[in-house]
Amino acid sequence: MKHKAVLALIGFCLLSPVISFTIRQAIAEDSTHVVTPTTPMLQPLVYQLDIEGAIGAVTDTRISDALDDAEESRAELVVIMLDTPGGFTKPTWSICKHILNSPVPVCIYIAPSGARAGSAGVYMTYAAHFAAMAPSTNIGAAHPVSGEGQKVDSIMNEKITNDAVAQIKAAADKRGRNAAWAERAVRESVSITDKEALDSNVINIRAENLDDLLRQLDGRETETPFGKKTLKLAGARVETMKHSFVQKVLEIITSPDVAFILFSIGGLGIVLELYNPGSILPGVVGAICLILAFYSFQTLPINYAGVLLILLAIILFIVEIKVVSHGLLTVGGIVSLILGGLMLVDTVDPALRVSWSVLITTGILLGLTLVLVGTLVYRASRSKPFIGQHALVGKHGEIHPEQFVYVEGALWKYESDQPLDIGAKVEIISVDQLTLKVRKLNS
Asked: What is the arithmetic mean of pLDDT over 49-72?
C-alpha cells in the first residue's frame, strides 16, 4: 500500500507540468489559431486585430503577441483596426517599437466610420508600414501629456514634446509620410479628416471596408527588417485575433475607472470587517480587490498623492468606528476619496482619467453603505439583549415562597429593598449572577 502511495505521488508530480500546460492552453483557446510554418499555405493569411479604447499595457501585450503569431504563421499582413482617444506614453512607445521592427507588414486601419486615432493612435499610425482610414474618421491631437508619474513643469514639458516630435518624424521619414503635419499634430494638437489625411500624405489608403483595403494593398511594396516585401493578398484568408480570457480580464482591471472602484471596494471590505470582526466575507473580498487594484496601479501612471488621499479616506472610515464624530469623519472620508480618485491617474487627458460619474457614484454609494452599517451597529449596541440572563431585565414576575420569584417559566433567587408578599407582582431591574434584583410593581 505504501509503495502504491509513493508511486501515485511520483505520478502526480510528473503529470503536474502537463496539467498546468493544458490549463494554460485552455485559457488561451479563444485566441487566434496559429498556423505553423510547416502548414502548406494554400492562400495568403491576413490577421485582423481590433483595438478599441485607451492604449495601455494590455494593448501592448496583444499587439506584441499578434505580431509574434503572424511571424510564426508566415502571414502576409497584420491589419490593426483602430479606434482610440489616445493612451499612455510607455505602452505607446513599446507598440511603435514592435511595429517598426516587425518582419510582417502592419497596416493601421482607422475604422469603422466614426472612429478616430487620437494622441497615441497617431504615433501607431505613423509607425505602421501602411496607414488607412475609413470614411468619416479623423486623426490627430497627438500632443504628449504627463503620464510617467512625475511633475511636469514647462521645461520638462518642452523636453517631452521635443522627444515625441523626434520619434514621430523619424517614423514619418522611414515610412515616407508627411513629417511636417506630424510635427504640427504633436506641437499644436491639430486633427484632420480621412480625405484631408489622404491628400496630405498622412495615410496611404482610404478604404470603405476591409475587403476594399486588402484589394488596394495587393501588390504594394514595403520595407521590413529583412528587406523589401511585396504584398500578395489575392484571395487572402482573414483570421480575427480575439482576446484571450486572461487578456479580457486584465483589460478590464487596468481601466482607471475599474482600478479606482476596486481600490474603493477593497477599502470598504476592510472597514466592514473591522466594524463586525469575524464576518470573514467582507475581509476576503476586500483583500482580493486591493490586490487587483495594486496590480492595476503597476500598469497605470499613478499619482501617489491620489493613492494617499484614498488611503486617508479608508483611515477616516475606520476611525469613525471608535470616535463619535456625528458623521464628520465619514464626510471627510468621502471628500478625500473623491479627490484621491480625481488625482489617481497622472494625466491631464480626461479620456484617460477616472470619470466624474464613477467618482461621484462610488463616493455616494460608499458613504450610504457606511452610514447604514454604522446605524445598524449603533442600534445593536443600544438594543437590549434577547438571550441570556441579562435579557430578564425589565421582565415581570411573581413572588413565590422561600425567597423565589417566578419569571419566564422558571424560579429564581431574588433580592429586594422592600418587603414583598407572596404573590406580589415585581419587575426585574438587574441580574447579579443567578440572583435577580427586583422591585414591586405599582398596582
From this structure: 93
- What are the respective helix, strand and coil percentages of the chain, to the nearest 5? 50, 20, 30
The rounded distance, in Å, linking the Cα atoms of 128 and 199 is 18
Classify residue 36 as exposed, middle or buried by CB count within 10 Å of its CB (0-12, 13-18, 19+).
exposed
Based on its alpha-carbon atoms, the radius of gyration of the chain, rounded to whole angstroms, reads: 34
More confident residue, 167 or 380: 167
Instruction: Answer yes or no: is pLDDT of 59 > 50.
Output: yes
Nearest residue to 369 (alpha-carbon basis) of 258, 269, 292: 269
Instruction: Look at residues 206, 238, 204 and name the one whose alpha carbon lies nearest to residue 221.
Output: 204
Give the closest residue to 71 by CA, choosing from 100, 37, 27: 37
Q: 3-state DSSP call for residue 110?
A: strand
- Beta strands at 106-110 and 77-83: parallel, antiparallel or unpaired: parallel
Q: Which residues contact 21 (CB under 8 A, 6 or more apart)?
A: none
Q: Choose between 18 and 251: higher pLDDT.
A: 251
Predicted TM-score (pTM) of this structure: 0.68
The CA angle 11-16-22, to the nearest 5 degrees, is 125
In this structure, are strands 191-193 and 138-140 parallel, antiparallel, or unpaired? antiparallel
Adjacent-strand bridge partners of 81: 50, 109
- Residues with a known catalytic role: 119, 159
Supply the pLDDT for residue 380.
66
Interior CA angle at 150 toward 363 and 296, to 5°?
50
- Rounded to 10°, the helix 328-343/304-322 angle is 170
Cell of 373: 452599517
